[in-house]
């Protein structure tokens, strides 16, 4: 059967460009700033977009291309930009992310950095790390993974082997990162979480303006990632490409555990098991209790969620883990959508969800919100779960939206949304159940005041 | 406190009144690595054309530019809302290698069939020029096939500053102006240029002029319609509100259609009042317009004065810092803040020109910092030094104010509350009041020792 011609345009993208992911990853390094090698707008748009979610200052420099630069190359302007950035910020590290413009004119940012280091030798330069993020290749999630890998490749150095754990968590919220750190600490582990923007993108009051916000993974810790006992890498999609964890395994023989984003009981159990192995001790009582409470709440709420269809959208990692979580509590992730290029999502979902075919799950790869809207209209899920960009569909089709992931532009506290581990899953579960109850309550003719 | 060392490339762009010799170097591209608050050429054209609600706005390039500008303006529409979608050709590596013109043609063609817009704007972003797509040819072909104007907006981000984007937008609008029927346009008719109907501001202003007996022929581009733009050459006068973006279009229309223009501002009581009387003065042949303008001013002032005075009492003596897009707006804001008894200690803009900064210099008090194309370091430093109580700016400036521990008022294009006109002045005062007077600042340690380690509250 001949289907309708596929749309050539994207209408309301369900993805962002790769430099944004790199900016986020670099925010997780202590004393780091980032410069985007391209037009001034790229840096400003990305800042604006991220500031609206994190509600924190987010200084990103640009090499501010002009027409001349586009013709003659960006070597001079990038070097000048680095000089100025060093003068103003005195950073420990500068992340240099390319854009579609500098990539297309064929600027070799790696060579420029090499020349720059040579020219400024002996001046006590910060660490310079280049990541290639042409916007026409992949999405913000790819930019994030690349920046993490490039940083580890640049910094990891062989030293004395130790028993520490590298945790590469992927694109989680600052709240999630804090929960992971706390857990590693309760286990008594020596660990390196990277990136760690739990403080830099969700800080307290400073009493002034900090050009380099406190927090982030220290450089020494990144150097030491080569000597860890194991790397725990979260996120299913990361397992498919080149990752920091794979690099450390190949170059330094650091064991690697690739786990899904720990949302729900089963996925968190896997994470806890890895921590148990690494710490050589059993899961602390605290987490057994949290696990118990989570399962107890599943029981209390099971009727309200069982068989309920949901639409999930966002980054592949989040969508896959969220869908597995919904499956665990008896909901049906009927629409699973990501803006990431086609090829991975369906396979990852098949692995994550038993009876995948029986569940009649519509998988939308390379999707925009127009495509998602069509699917949601057809399948009529009772709830939508994803970024605040789903709001338009939610409003139009009158389907409640549980905001999570990135970005959340229309609510306070986007940085403090919890998704992972028993505690975060608990909050997520309560939010989903309550959203369904709220919807039922508001749409009931008489209203009700008991569950 | 040690004096802030301004980056070499920026030395001519910061000025302290009463201290330095005034020779502000503006209109230049941002210094590399300076962490400018500015965007790019694409941003300039996108913000101006965005409020044309019945047009298709298709961003030709990789996904970022379209994604970051999806529905970011607070421009309201009384009808169609095609503009609130974000359309992109989402170029991939293969398109960059083999060219994206074919994809553009297909994308635009499908979207026009689906959304049936009155016109289509194709924004050519950074890499489109580089890979050599013949966008003009695609536009021409589509215009003929679809029988609507399809216009290439030349907005490669690197081809200048945001101002060049304004210019590209003006050129695009100028292609539409003059193509409609003007036989039915009333004699006392004006176009308002550079009023974008943020939070419904154009409707407030239109109401004033209507009450004066003046017909608003087209608002360019607030609550904009392609048909209005086509008939814009039928007005007797162009009233330019956002001077930075629209003076160029006013000049084109003066040259081509002999329509004179005046510069006005709708922010603050003085400027709003002048904006009404200046239009009345233009139509001096009909003195009734002037009379009715007087009535509008009186009625509106009577309505807001009691509230305004209450705010003034609380805000008197407080200090404000401004960092806005165009410098002409800063000028109005300073006057508006004076009405509230407030002093302005810093006034800056992203895109001011020499004239604007001259005006700013005249109106500012000694000691005030005047700054072009600032960055977070400069802003935070001067705001701290000058002990401002509130910063007026946009989204990117908000966390700077909050981290320093002072109030913030959003005067950017995302605002949800109308700040123009008389009612807008009352809203503005209310906004400033509700931030500056909040008890939260008592919990925050406001520190004057910038950049040094300090104890936490």
Overall description:
The complex is a heterodimer of chains A (451) and B (457). With 451 residues, chain A is an alpha/beta fold. Chain A has helices spanning 18-26, 40-54, 67-72, 75-89, 100-104, 109-119, 140-155, 174-186, 219-223, 244-252, 265-279, 285-305, 316-328, 345-352, 369-379, 391-397, 421-443; strands spanning 10-11, 32-37, 60-62, 93-98, 127-131, 165-168, 191-193, 230-234, 255-259, 309-313, 332-337, 362-364, 383-386, 401-403. In chain A, 45% of the residues lie in helices and 13% in strands. In chain A, the strands form three sheets. In chain A, strands 12-11-10-13-14 form a five-stranded parallel β-sheet, sandwiched between helices. Chain B is α/β, with parallel strands linked by helices and 457 residues long. In chain B, strand 13 (390-393), helix 16 (398-404) and strand 14 form a beta-alpha-beta unit. The longest helix of chain B has 29 residues, at 287-315. Residues 449-457 of chain B have low confidence and may be disordered. At the A-B interface, strand 1, helix 2, strand 3, helix 3 and helix 4 of A face helix 1, helix 2, strand 3, helix 3 and helix 4 of B.
Feature tags:
heterodimer; A: 451 residues; alpha/beta; five-stranded parallel β-sheet; four-stranded parallel β-sheet; 17 helices; 45% helix; 13% strand; globular; B: 457 residues; six-stranded mixed β-sheet; 14 strands
- The chain-level structural class of chain B is alpha/beta
Proportion of residues in β-strands of chain B? 5-15%
Instruction: Count all strands of chain B and give the number.
Output: 14
Shape of chain B: globular
Q: What integer value in Å does the Rg of chain B equal?
A: 23 Å
Specify the structural class of chain A: alpha/beta
Number of helices of chain A: 17
- Biggest sheet of chain B: strands, sense, closure? 6 strands, mixed
Largest sheet of chain A: 5 strands, parallel
